[in-house]
Amino acid sequence: EAQVTQNPRYLITVTGKKLTVTCSQNMNHEYMSWYRQDPGLGLRQIYYSMNVEVTDKGDVPEGYKVSRKEKRNFPLILESPSPNQTSLYFCASSPRTVPSYEQYFGPGTRLTVT
Amino acid sequence: AQSVTQLGSHVSVSEGALVLLRCNYSSSVPPYLFWYVQYPNQGLQLLLKYTTGATLVKGINGFEAEFKKSETSFHLTKPSAHMSDAAEYFCAVSEDSNYQLIWGAGTKLIIKP
């Protein structure tokens, strides 16, 4: 089944404890992206990647890191999480690096930082 | 800069009534327009999109949207609401010069029995 998977789905952690949220897609998509969703703010892009070893900042990259060593994986790293990073996170992928193609979303990771 | 405005963070309609969710965008060039739906505790899925051609676009679950360039709008409609339509709906826009999707804040659709 074609899908984007994220792990974990739910995570509660403490301030400063490094964590990684994994994202994997099995559709051979070039483009991948991370978003955070907060009430009333819609989706805000954190980082995106146009292909392997090519990543770039989105609108809210502070406090996050990403890497794209393989086409299928795009992990999101929080080196020192803070409470303002409590949010719902979505990974997405797209088959082409052109804007007319739809994005396919993972199920989301709900992160709570205390 | 591009922006997307969704009028109404919450819209409530009765089951069987018309659904109208509004989306206006700002763009200096022809845009690509999308509506996504997010059901409770799920990720987003594409409802429909406009790229080129016919301005009335049909999507899944009986939804459709019309691109009106003169009004810079892409409103989402459905003739008769079902309880299963209760979800949050997001409008998004992109352009050839910008690979990134610009998102509206979302509209939560509430269906009254």
Helix-strand makeup class of chain B: mainly beta
Main sheet characteristics of chain B: 6 strands, mixed
Most residues in contact: chain pair: A-B, 23 and 24 residues
Secondary-structure element order of chain A, as H and E?
A: EEEEEEEEEEE
Describe the largest sheet of chain A: 7 strands, mixed
Q: Report Rg of chain A.
A: 13 Å
Measured distance between first and last alpha carbons of chain B: 41 Å
Describe this structure as you would to a colleague.
The complex is a heterodimer of chains A (114) and B (113). Chain A is mainly beta. Chain A has no helices and eleven strands. Chain A has strands spanning 4-7, 10-13, 19-25, 31-38, 42-51, 54-57, 65-66, 76-78, 87-94, 104-105, 109-113. In chain A, a hairpin with a 3-residue loop joins strand 4 (31-38) and strand 5. The termini of chain A are far apart. In chain B, 0% of the residues lie in helices and 59% in strands. In chain B, the strands form two sheets. In chain B, strands 2, 4, 5, 9, 10 and 11 form a six-stranded mixed sheet that branches. In chain B, strand 4 (32-38) and strand 5 (44-50) form a beta hairpin. At the A-B interface, strand 5 of A face strand 4, strand 5, strand 9 and strand 10 of B.
Compact summary:
In chain A, 0% of the residues lie in helices and 50% in strands. Chain A contains no helices and eleven strands.
Secondary structure topology:
The complex is a heterodimer of chains A (114) and B (113).
Chain A: E1 4-7, E2 10-13, E3 19-25, E4 31-38, E5 42-51, E6 54-57, E7 65-66, E8 76-78, E9 87-94, E10 104-105, E11 109-113
Parallel strand pairs in A: 2-11
Antiparallel strand pairs in A: 1-3, 3-8, 4-5, 4-9, 5-6, 7-8, 9-10, 9-11
Chain B: E1 3-7, E2 10-14, E3 19-26, E4 32-38, E5 44-50, E6 56-58, E7 64-68, E8 73-78, E9 87-95, E10 98-103, E11 107-112
Parallel strand pairs in B: 2-11
Antiparallel strand pairs in B: 1-3, 3-8, 4-5, 4-9, 6-7, 7-8, 9-10, 9-11
